[in-house]
Amino acid sequence: MFESLLIDEQHRVLEALHQLEETRRKILYVITEDGRLVGTLTDGDVRRWILGGGKLDGVVGAVCNRCPYSVEAGYRLDDLKRVMTERKITSVPVLDDAGRVVDVLFGDGLVEVGSDSRQEALLGMPVVVMAGGKGTRLAPFTSVLPKPLIPIGDKTAIEVIIESFAACGVDDFYLSVNYKSKLIQAYFEELAPSYRLHYVHEDKPLGTGGGLRTLAGRLEGDLIVTNCDVIIKADYHDLVDHHVRENNDITMVVSLRHYDIPYGICDIVDNGQLCAMREKPQYHFLVNTGLYVLKSSVLEMIPEDQFYHLTELIDDVKRHGGRVGVYPISDKAWLDTGEWQQYCDTMAQLRS
What are phi and psi of 127, to 5 degrees? Predict the structure, then answer.
């Protein structure tokens, strides 16, 4: 029913973001209290709002596109098809004489809207998966299996990650391996995937960034780097477009995290006197997910044969005047399997 695509203009941005995840249509129609159309809202609108300094507790009416395309009852089907095809619109609201939304028309079965050219194009860049860690937080699983091979449904974690990129046309994958690396190689030899795998062997643990140094000079253009315990449900084409458009040296994918403190928070001064109290405060954070887009040139800044994290590379790039940007995604678009509770939460979400 189209009602699931409607949201009141006074609702909060965080509520809208969750509703966008639930609808799977990737668009909401913003309405007044009496149902009149105000505008449209997509995850791209929310992302631009956040990058511009907007808050998650801001109202939807301040974020939405206020010039949406709509039709009134009695519309001509041929005209509608033409406009939807030309503008590549996948859904259109139908309004009554008072401007209230009474229906939403979808391109599915109505018109050949055409696929997104970005999705048709291959994501022509390599992906590096950091798969060398011991995964001690997942013991005793990882006392037997390397972390990349823990099961996610009927596949391994690293398969799920790789296949999400392979679906976008990525064909070159580099696995940075150390702990139980022979098991990882044996698994993929048996699997015999259609994509190409290259192994970057670390003779000793080099952190989340140290192993990348061996790729300096071997890769050109941009590359994607991901941890082996994060599953990101994002539009990778849009992520790369954002990285290129902003001319970033590094783009970090960050997840929106919302925390409710169910208690009153007390602020005190040195003598133990209460100076302020905040009842059940709410906090919003942008959290590093462990997925990055990098210009290959920054790999030259990584020291050779040293333990070095990607966060240190970010600091070094910024110190040398480089550009480091972020690409926000919703909390539901980030599935983390790095700890037991996170792993169980991820499995529950995938089953739901």
Answer: -120, 130
Q: Could you give the angle at the alpha carbon of 52 between the alpha carbons of 49 and 55, nearest 5°?
A: 60
- Asked which of 22-36, 59-73, 132-146, 307-321 is least confident by mean pLDDT, the reply is 132-146
Q: What is the pLDDT of residues 269-316, one digit of tens each?
A: 877 888 899 998 888 788 999 999 999 999 999 999 899 999 999 999
Looking up tokens 């001064």 gives: 269
The answer to whether 31 and 60 have CB atoms below 8 angstroms apart is no
Q: Which of 230, 222, 221, 198 is nearest to 211 (CA)?
A: 198
Query: What is this structure's pTM?
Result: 0.82
Question: Rounded distance, CA 63 to CA 50, Å?
Answer: 10
Evaluate whether 41 touches 27 at the Cβ level (below 8 Å): yes
Inter-residue contact 291 to 225 (CB < 8 Å) = yes
Q: How far is CA 307 from the centre of its chain?
A: 27
Pick one of 3.30.390.10, 3.40.50.1970, 3.90.190.20, 3.90.550.10 as the CATH number of 118-351: 3.90.550.10
Task: Give whole-number Cα distances, 286 to 45, 55, 94, 257, in Å.
Answer: 17, 11, 37, 6
Beta partners for residue 285, in sequence order: 257
Q: Residue 173's closest CA among 157, 183, 158?
A: 158
Distance between CA 134 and CA 128 in Å, rounded?
18
Q: Is 50 helix (H, G, I), strand (E, B) or coil?
A: helix
SS3 state at 207: helix
Alpha-carbon torsion, ordered 310, 316, 319, 320, to 10 deg: -120
Say what the pLDDT of residue 117 is: 45
Q: Give the Cα separation of 26 and 91 in Å (integer).
A: 10
Amino acid letter at 337? T
Neighbours of 296 (CB within 10 A): 18
Domain extents in the chain: 2-112, 118-351
Q: Which residues touch 59 (CB under 8 Å, ≥6 apart)?
A: 9, 10, 11, 12, 13
Q: Homologous superfamily of 2-112 in CATH?
A: CBS-domain (3.10.580.10)
